[in-house]
Design a protein that fits this description.
InterPro entries: HNH, HNH_nuc. This is HNH endonuclease. Keywords: Endonuclease, Hydrolase, Nuclease. The chain has helices at about 10-15, 20-30, 65-80, and strands at about 45, 60. By secondary structure, the chain is mainly alpha-helical. It has a domain at about 15-75. Strands 1-2 form a two-stranded antiparallel ribbon. The longest helix has 17 residues, at about 65-80.
Length: about 100
Amino acid sequence: MKRSGWNNQHARMRQLPKDWRRIRQSVIARDSGRCVQCGERGTDVDHIARGNDHSIENLRLLCRSCHMRRTGRDGGTAKRRPKRTHRPPRQHPGFRSDRDAA
């Protein structure tokens, strides 16, 4: 059997609880199948606050367009965060001077 390089299970799905389908259906029912932002047909269940809180209170139904806008905003926030400063890389032992060896 030829194997594809693609894994059928999306990485995000591996992070979701085992009863995710039930939780998702509950959110869809609670929000009457409509995007809570614009009222269009809802397709995506969105986490309101970041993290691993999969409680129904932290979830809402969005249409694809509103979800993409939200995801883009989150990405923009990540880009605006200050970059981490790393310590300078160590010099290769073959290039060290005697004073660096201390």
